[in-house]
Structures are given as C-alpha cells and as structure tokens.
Amino acid sequence: MARAKGPKYESAFRRRRENKTNFAKRLALVKGGLPRMVIRRGSTSLVVQFVKYSEKGDVVLAGVNSAALKKFKWAPRANVPTAYLTGLYAGKLAKKKGVKEFVLDIGLYAPVKNSVAFAAQKGALDSGLSASHGEGLTDEARISGTHIEAYAKSLDESEYKKRFSSYLKDGFKPRDFVSHFKASKEAILKEA
Prior knowledge:
alpha+beta
C-alpha cells in the first residue's frame, strides 16, 4: 500500500506575498523594451528613476531624490509640485543619458487624476522626453501649487505658522508658493 502524499504547495515570490510587486504588470512593462520611469513616494520624499531591464538586474539610468531640489531653492515635500519638479529634473538627467522615450511604472499605486505619479510624468514630458499618456491627468494649477498658496493665504497668522512650520523653518514662504515654484522650475531648466 502506498503512502498518501499531500498536495504540493508553491509559495509565491516574497515581494508578491508582501504585496510589494505585481509581477504580471511588471512583465508587461518590461516586454515593451522601453526604459521605465519608476516613481516611489515616501512619507517625506519622492524618488524618480529611469530604469532599464537587464537579465542580471535592473539598471538605473538616471535617478533623483526630491532632496536634490534643495540646490534649486525648493523645500521638498511629498506633494504634487515637488513630484513635478523631481520628474522634470530626472527627465533632464535621463535625456543626457540618451533616454528619449519611456513608459510610466507606478507600481501598486492607484492611477488617480492629479496624483504624484502623473505630476512626475508631466515633469518628465516637459523636460523633452516622450511617452504614451492620457490627456487631462494633471491640472496646471495643482502642479504649480496654487491650491497650497490659496490655503496659506486663507489662514490667520498663528494658524499659518502652525500649519506651515516646517516650510517656514526652511526659509520657504508658502504664501508665495507659485513664485517659488516658477523660480525653481526655471533654475532646473537652466542647469540640467
């Protein structure tokens, strides 16, 4: 009489079990053959990278952490205007490395209009790169931070200092948000 054998169980890849990577989506992006623009958001910063597939492991062609925007007199936070500027700067650097076209890789993030991912993509497109994308995914007023400036102006002085204390500590005035944004954007376009 043969011994009973239970069913074979194969566990999924660790990153899939931890809900960090959708491998079917990643494979579809890799099959396209174009570099991927990878956007990852932390609690206080953003990372935008242009990544090319290689059998030995992905190769980062160009990458920018939002903290690099400090040299352009920008106070980086994990928000839409910072995502746009980070995407613009990363796009300029990628263009220098020979990237002409890319595909957006937002990972497990939901594709939401006016999100950080689409703002970063818009920045890369404005840097001179091309990608297949939908129209109307970003609003210029949100990208430039008009909503943040309007909110800062609507607060009384004590509430303003409380809500924007980290900006004020960095010497950044949220009531002049749009002018700061334009100045930083011009500085990025001139340097990169």
